[in-house]
Amino acid sequence: MSIDIESVSKNFGEFSALSDINLVVPSGELVALLGPSGSGKTTLLRIIAGLESPDAGRILFNGEEATKRHVRERQVGFVFQHYALFRHMTVFDNIAFGLTVKPKKSRLSKADIRDKVFTLLKLIQLEQLADRYPAQLSGGQRQRVALARALAVEPQVLLLDEPFGALDAKVRLELRRWLRRLHDEIHVTSVFVTHDQEEALEVADRIVVMNKGKIEQQGTPSEVYDRPATPFVFDFLGNVNLFQGRVHEGMAQMGGMQLSSPEHAATNNVPAIGYVRSHDIEIERAPLDASSIEAEVRYLLSVGPLVRVDLSLSGGEESIEVDLSRDVADRLELKVGEKVFARPRKMRVFTDDYQI
Amino acid sequence: MHVSTGFQKSAEKVGGSRVSEPAWIRYLLITIALAFLGLFLLLPLAAVFVQAFDKGWEAYLAALHEPDTLSAIWLTLLTALICVPVNLFFGIVAAWSIAKFSFPGKSLLITLIDLPFSVSPVVSGLIYVLIFGLQGWLGPWLQAHDIQIIFAVPGIVLATIFVTFPFVARELIPLMESQGREEEEAALTLGASGLQTFFRVTFPNIKWGVLYGVILCNARAMGEFGAVSVVSGHVRGSTNTIPLQVEILYNEYSYAAAFAVASLLALLAVATLAVKTVAEWKIQQSLSTNETER
Question: What is the ipTM of this complex?
Fold first, then answer.
């Protein structure tokens, strides 16, 4: 089922949680709403579910007006951050809940409900825990039960609110890969909220980056990551270094570096900010061209497969962060206090009308 | 009970460690607490039963079989039978709306629920006399329609409802607030109706809190003296409840009879404590599963 969100706004008192949101979620896709806390992503998810109502705008399910439809009738599966399992019910009863509250005439028989619950238990690989209570399960197990409970009613849409937010790093990684595989199997239109860019990049078909109640950019993970539309998106997805400077007729002057910036060919001496990802900077012993800048090594830190180098730029207080792969770092044999040259491989320049 | 279990738990955690007080201070404090309890609670309780059985088992039973006493027992039961369900209903509705919705005037409602706790019961009784009494606002109208509220059973019931209405609500509000509304929201997204959500999700989570509130409410409803005393008119065999009957018997120097009737209230108190302890234990249990779940 496709979801259309048309100019939806929502205020909580003075606070504008969402302003004029337009979004299309195509049928069968797995879409991530990505943003910092307070960006309105959870509010948007709750409006799609019908747990909140928008102040203005419409929600369409498969092209049909659903704004006024009650939560009960929306046929959405909602997975909460803190699972919201019924604590006094067993795993079996939790999953069966949605099936047993149906009106008598559309309700499955006891045996059919049992079969269905066990099929779902098999899907989440927890068959042997059917009689346990939520308190007896680990976080990852609870979240899988919550997912099975939501899937039991065969929802048209699956909505997940920070589904892995309360789990520890390793379980989170496993579970999100499992969710991706599950989605490839059942293809139910899904929207999930996250503040973890890595999670969004890894799991989603499409990413919608939100900030302060507005959509900053939407697209496939590689579109959003490789071609950020705004400084905010650049900043939010990955480690980034900022350079202040000016652009003039396609050339950017950034803190002693000269780079070409073809998309600003028409600008005439405008203040600008350059964004460079920390892994898009090369470190050399000698300057290669005008885009190199002299710097001093301040710290070296090994982070798993990467070596993080902290450089202070000559002639300034500013420092930049560079991520090198371990073999490059080993070849360079950098030492703290050493003078080197840094060169951005890729820089994205935003002129001032794009302020965050 | 609540406080003492909490104390034991934290004492176990730090017991014997360096941050704990020296042994003699601990034993001194415990001894003082126990001596105080014994002197002011257990001793009087024992005295009630000693006095009640002073003239023997036969006299005890005879005192309870007194028609005026039987009528007082019956009136007390009737009052509790009306007040407890009314306040149970009101308490759940109030707690539900306070814990699960936000609306203007919410904090005012919480304050109002506490009002009967902060007002002297005698004043609560007087309020009803002022409203329903012969000289009161509704007095003339009530008299014209031949309805008697003050110095009659309806007045006693009304005053008791007023005095006991915080018990259930007060117990449930923090419990329901701590449990949040996610489980209810989950039930709704799964297609449950409002009633199904209440009976299958909300109520099972609060049932021990409800029981706790009901017991306290019942104990107070049966034991209330001040407010009931003002509105009852002390008509023997007709508008006397157990506490009023105890006072009358005592003033007439029938000590054994007074204490025999009083022993009923004392027994009620003991039973209340027992059920309350179980309920508290169960609430703690449900809260702790809640915590591990988060």
Answer: 0.82
